[in-house]
């Protein structure tokens, strides 16, 4: 059972919520979403930078294991020789031959 003016009140509430209060909160919502996007982008950049540092440490021979991982690179007798001014690690596999 509808009371007099119920439809009018419902329509007024919908209009107020969509165009009145909703439009007042839009700048706050946009600012909050922008900050969240910035935080996500910052985390992505930090993870990429950390991965690049780990890769460089592995390439230079400082580290033979990936941090925070169960993956291990080949370990064994290593020698380094210079190629074009860079140290290149080599693995002596002759000890594994019988």
What does this structure look like?
With 98 residues, the chain is of the alpha+beta class. It has a domain of 64 residues. It has one helix and two strands. Strand 1 and strand 2 form a beta hairpin. The chain is rod-shaped.
Topology (SSEs and partners):
Blueprint: H1 6-60, E1 78-83, E2 86-91
Task: Give a quick precis of the structure.
The protein has a domain at 6-69. It contains 1 helix and 2 strands; from the N terminus they run αββ. The protein has one helix at residues 6-60; strands at 78-83, 86-91.
Residue windows where pLDDT falls under 50 for at least 5 positions: none
Number of strands: 2
Q: Helical amount among residues, as a percent range?
A: 55-70%
Q: Count of helices?
A: 1
Evaluate the radius of gyration.
31 Å
- Major sheet description: 2 strands, antiparallel
Report mean pLDDT, rounded to a whole number.
Answer: 77
Shape type:
rod-shaped
Strand content: 5-15%
